[in-house]
Amino acid sequence: MQMTGGVVTAIGVPITLSFQGWVAMGPVIAWAVGLSLLLIASGVGLDALRLRHSRYRVGPDRAELRSGILFAKHRSLSRDRIRSVDLVAHPLLRLLGLVEVRIGTGEQSAGQEATLELRPVRRAEGERLRRELLSRAAKDGASDAQTTLAFLDPRWIRYAPLSFVTSALAAAAGGAVMQVSEWFGVQEEVIEWVGDVFRGMSVTGMVLALIAVGLAAGSVGALGLWIEMWWNYRLEREPGGTLRVRRGLFTTRSISLEEARLRGVDVVEPLGLRLSGAARVDAVATGLSRRDEEDQAGPSTLLPAAPRRLADGVAAQVLRERVTPTATELAPHPRAARSRRIRWAVSAALAPALVLLLLGVLLDVRVLTYLGTGTAVVLVPVAVALACDAYRSLGHALDADYLVVRSGTLRRSTVALRRGGVIGWTVKQSVLQRRAGLVTLSATTAAGAQAYAAYDVGEAEGLEFAERAVPGLLAPFLERRDG
Fold first, then answer.
1. Cys-Cys with 126: which of 99, 178, 258, 476 at CB 3.0–4.6 Å?
2. How many structural domains compose the chain?
3. Where in this chain does the entry annotate a coiled-coil region (predicted)?
4. For the packed helices 187-197 and 164-183, what is the interaxial angle rounded to 10 degrees?
């Protein structure tokens, strides 16, 4: 009986303490729940007030939006200026049958696209507004039939882990583990656990194993991100000359691009995709916001990573050409351009190695000396290989109505730009370029990245290329310089 009583006591005491703890925490929990409910109710109330004070109207000449609770705001866009109507719906809006409608003019105002945002409207109303606002009278009274230029192939998912997003997500995962463990005060225990798991391995082996684990986690994240962004993908050409991209698993997006704004295409091949024979297609168009994050699905992306042959086919269809200009044979650049890239690459690779060697000598620490030597042995060959690849990627050509430039190694970009879209040339020549007889020519345009460069072209060849691409645009300045 004494033993039984001890067991009952041993069980009952923790239960009692736990119950007392919950009772003691009761007011805190009640305050937390009450505050959460108050915040939710406030958010819902503010949204209800905003919707009640928001009105829009689409007339024959203008699209108008009135909004504001304390300060009324009236915005208006001329229908002649409207160039895009995009529909976006996150999971809650989809559940309610609603969408956000973003009406854009394709112009930049204070660094942002001038838009009217209707949030939210019924999906059927959003589709009606999109069709009405983007309706254009086709040339010569004709109208294109709606055609599908590309649609999702689930096999494309194999390219998702080959992007730079994988390494970024791997680093983020490692940082998140350390940050969360610090919040809970168990960071030292996590580090000790990792040390116990890899006990017996060398430092190099442990680092490589951790990198492999991180890349595996990053690959899983990249796959999930790709599915969310590109599921149900479809690229269509609609009557009246509008390209429409639809995509998204949980958050659906419908992005419209008027072909009149199109100035060319950019076939992008990050290193991982290029090694696997894949590429993506971006539009070079006016009024599209440009994202610098690599491998992110921006408004200019027409085709996700797909086999290069398919990417060339889609680029040709987008440009209404039989063969895409981005597949034309490009003129190579002078060997002096290769020498420049090798010098840059070797200098960048030797810089950290020399710092480590210098510290090792000054501090008399052999480990730093060995590390510096190893860094040079590893980085220099890699840098030279990348420099040679960067040189091979250089090229330029003229193809019918397009000028084509290509550059890059970690991110190779082949841009086909309509000659009529070029509004100017920028000619740059450093002291070292002058000695090597090279120039960098940048075609400026109102679309895309605003400028597309042919790097390290022979001086005479480059100036002739610019003059042939857009006759008369550069000639007066050349005559002035020669005179």
1. 99
2. 2
3. none
4. 120
416 shares its domain with 445: yes
Both 474 and 407 in one domain: the answer is yes
Q: What is the pLDDT of residues 199-232, one digit of tens each?
A: 777 777 777 888 888 888 889 999 999 999 999 9
Beta-ladder partners of 262: 285
Domain annotation covers residue 13: no
Longest dimension (CA), the chain: 115
Q: What is the C-alpha separation between 474 and 405, in angstroms, rounded?
A: 18
347-387: per-residue pLDDT in tens? 999 999 999 889 888 888 888 888 888 888 999 999 999 99
Radius of gyration of the chain (CA): 30
Say how far apart CA 265 and CA 281 lie, in whole Å: 7
DSSP string, 217-237: HHHHHHHHHHHHHHTT-EEEE
Q: Rounded to two decimals, what is the model's pTM?
A: 0.81
Q: How far apart are CA 125 and CA 243, in angstroms?
A: 20
Question: Which CATH number covers residue 401?
Answer: 2.30.29
Shared-domain flag, residues 403 and 446:
yes
Clarify whether residues 384 and 398 are in a common domain: no
The helix or strand, by DSSP H or E, that contains position 465, with its residue range, turns out to be helix 459-469
Domain that residue 359 falls in: 335-389
What DSSP string describes 336-380?
A: HHHHHHHHHHHHHHHHHHHHHHHHHHHHT-HHHHHHHHHHHHHHH
Query: Is 396 within 8 Å of 325 (Cβ atoms)?
Result: no
DSSP characters over 168-209: HHHHHHHHHHHHHHHHTT-HHHHHHHHHHHTTTS-HHHHHHH
Q: What are phi and psi of 204, to 5 degrees?
A: -65, -45
